[in-house]
C-alpha cells in the first residue's frame, strides 16, 4: 500500500496551496470503482470522472452522447473507491450550456447523488453566469479551456487550439473571467506551451494542462490512454506508461488456449 494513504485528503484549498508552494498537481481520469481504488492508492491528487467516459467506456466517437445519469453512475462508483484524492466530475454536454439554472440543478445532482467533491465544465465567457450560480450553492467549479471536446463539431478538428492571436487573447480573457467568477482551478487542453505558461503565471488558481506543456501547475491524462489500452489515439502529448492492451490480449489469449486444451482448471483449481 502506498504511503500516500497516510496523507490527508486533498481539497480544493490543498491544490491552491500546492500551486503556491510549487508542488505539481497530478490528475488522471477514472470511471469505475476498481481503477479508481488503484489510482487513489497510488497517490494521485485529483481524479477526474471525465466525460471522456463517453469514448473510453461507451465507445462513442465524441463526448457529446453521455448523459447526466450516466456521469452520476460513473462518479458514484469512483467516489466509493476513493480515500484521498479530490474527485471532480464533468458536467456532460447539454446539462449546463445556455441556462445557469439547469447548470445548477445538474451540479446539485452530481454532488447529492454521487457525492463528488467538485464539478468541471467547458467554456469561458459563455458559461460564467453558470459558474457563479453553481458556486452560489457552495459547489466548487473547475474550468476547461482550449480544446474543449464538447465543441468538437464547431471546431471540426482535434488539432491544437489558440495558435492565432485572436483565439489566444480570448483564451486569456476567459481564464481571467473564470478565476474572477471563483473557479478553483482550470484545465487547459492542447494549446501552445508558451500560452499555457503565460496563463499559469497570470492566475493565482492552479492551471492543469493536457497537451499544454510543462510550465503549468499540474498535468492530467486519460487513464486508459496512459496505460496503453487505447492504441488508436496517438497525440504528441500522450506518454504511455504501460502497454496494457498487449498484456491483456496476451493474458486473454492464453486463457482461451488453456480452456481449449483442458489445461485450466487443473486439479488444484477445483473442489
Ligand atoms: O473528459 C476528460 O477526460 C477531460 C480531460 C481530457 C481533461 O476533460
CATH domain topology of the largest domain? TIM Barrel
**DSSP, total strands:** 8
Strand content: 5-15%
How many separate domains make up the residues? Answer: 2
Under the CATH scheme, the architecture of the largest domain is Alpha-Beta Barrel
In this entry the ligands are: 3-methyl-2-oxobutanoic acid
Mean pLDDT: 96
Element order, helices and strands?
Answer: HEHEHHEHEHEHHEHEEHH
Ranges where pLDDT stays below 50 over 5 or more residues in a row are none
Query: Rounded to an integer, what's the Rg over CA atoms?
Result: 20 Å
**3D shape:** globular
- The side-by-side strand order for the widest beta sheet comes to 1-2-3-4-5-6-7-8
Q: Please describe the biggest sheet, giving its number of strands, its sense, and whether it closes into a barrel.
A: 8 strands, parallel, barrel
Structural class: alpha/beta
Amino acid at each position: 500500500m502506498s504511503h500516500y494513504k497516510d496523507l490527508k485528503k486533498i481539497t480544493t484549498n490543498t491544490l491552491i496551496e500546492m500551486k503556491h508552494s510549487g508542488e505539481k498537481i497530478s490528475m488522471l481520469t477514472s470511471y469505475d470503482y476498481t481503477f479508481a481504488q488503484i489510482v487513489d492508492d497510488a497517490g494521485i491528487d485529483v481524479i477526474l470522472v471525465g466525460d471522456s467516459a463517453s469514448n473510453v467506456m461507451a465507445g462513442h466517437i465524441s463526448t457529446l452522447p453521455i448523459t447526466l445519469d450516466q456521469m452520476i453512475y460513473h462518479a458514484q462508483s469512483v467516489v466509493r473507491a476513493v480515500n484521498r484524492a479530490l474527485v471532480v466530475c464533468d458536467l456532460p454536454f447539454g446539462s449546463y450550456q445556455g441556462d445557469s439554472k439547469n447548470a445548477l440543478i445538474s451540479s446539485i445532482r452530481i454532488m447529492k447523488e454521487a457525492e463528488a467533491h467538485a464539478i468541471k465544465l467547458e467554456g469561458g465567457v459563455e458559461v460564467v453566469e453558470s459558474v457563479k450560480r453553481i458556486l452560489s450553492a457552495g459547489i466548487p467549479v473547475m474550468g476547461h479551456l482550449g480544446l474543449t471536446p464538447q465543441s468538437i463539431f464547431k471546431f471540426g478538428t482535434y488539432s491544437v487550439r489558440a495558435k492565432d492571436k485572436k483565439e489566444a487573447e480570448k483564451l486569456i480573457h476567459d481564464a481571467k473571467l473564470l478565476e474572477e467568477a471563483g473557479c478553483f482551478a482550470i484545465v487547459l487542453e492542447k494549446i501552445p506551451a508558451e500560452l499555457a505558461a503565460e496563463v499559469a503565471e497570470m492566475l493565482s488558481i492552479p492551471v492543469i494542462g493536457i497537451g499544454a506543456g510543462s510550465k503549468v501547475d499540474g498535468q492530467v491524462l486519460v487513464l486508459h490512454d496512459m496505460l496503453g489500452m487505447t492504441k488508436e489515439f496517438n497525440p504528441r502529448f500522450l506518454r504511455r506508461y504501460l502497454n496494457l492492451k498487449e498484456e491483456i490480449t496476451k493474458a486473454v489469449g492464453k486463457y482461451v488456449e488453456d480452456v481449449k486444451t483442458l489445461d485450466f482448471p487443473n486439479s488444484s483449481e477445483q473442489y
